Description:
Shape: globular
Amino acid sequence: MSTLSFLLEGLRNIGTTGTITRSGTALCRAAIDRIDFTTARTIVELGAGDGVITKHILERLHPEGRVIAFEVSEDLCNDMRAIGDPRLVVAQDSAEHIGKYLDRVGAERADHIVSAIPFAALPRDLGERIVTAAHDHLRPGGCYNQVHYSLKTKSYYERAFGRVEARRVYLNLPPAWVLYCRK
Length: 183
């Protein structure tokens, strides 16, 4: 998807995309920097957009690994499918259905979860259900990393995971936060 196409998708569906610009390289790296790629075999990405973070995950993922990337926009899912990596499973579905897709790939739990879902734009009950599903389907010791542009919904992660570490990423337009949670 071109930058202009991404901008138009963001303007049309700001409630589901949460932004009008792609995540920059510094934000993508911060979003995945707590993942242990030497042992991770199943990574779930929520709100994957056109796959900008997905590509960073796939670059480091073990050859036998899998990425299950959730996105609700059909156009953005088509962009992810065009990546053409057999380790990528594109789930055009709500992220609260994590368990169904883990079953499909034969994984009991996700090793790590990365999310860029714009929870501030979603109904509170849906956001909390998604975060709870992420917690419930994450293996002990796994990390949940959430990209945000504000700390408005930080309480979702504190309720589900307890301690939350927040890191500001200034080298992104606009500057963003990554919230790190361990199970």
